[in-house]
Amino acid sequence: MKNYIALVVVLFTLLSCHRHEENSATITISSPDPAVYFVGGDTIFIQGSVVAESEMHGMTIQLLNDANDSVMYTYSNEEHLASYTFNQFYVNQVAEHMDVRLEVVAELDHDGNEAKKTMLLHLYP
To answer: How much is the pTM?
Structure first.
């Protein structure tokens, strides 16, 4: 009887464990164009998509001051989806020239694995 219980426990353990498949994502930023210089009052459209092999656990868009990493804008979507399409905007209101880093980050799983794409933008008053 002990052998039978041990066999059941071992089988249950083996069947309940599943191999963790790694997920990856393709991030496409279709707008803005990094070659464009944005002046005061310009609307910067942030558009694109994130497509993964399997369900992701969220995505975030941030605009960061490249000199000190201060956050100027944040958008996040925490839905569990295999793809996201984003269409956001930011109105340039800087007081002096600033290099700004656009980051799109996909949270691939709950273990902290991410896919990231960055782009440098130039903002002027």
So the answer is: 0.78
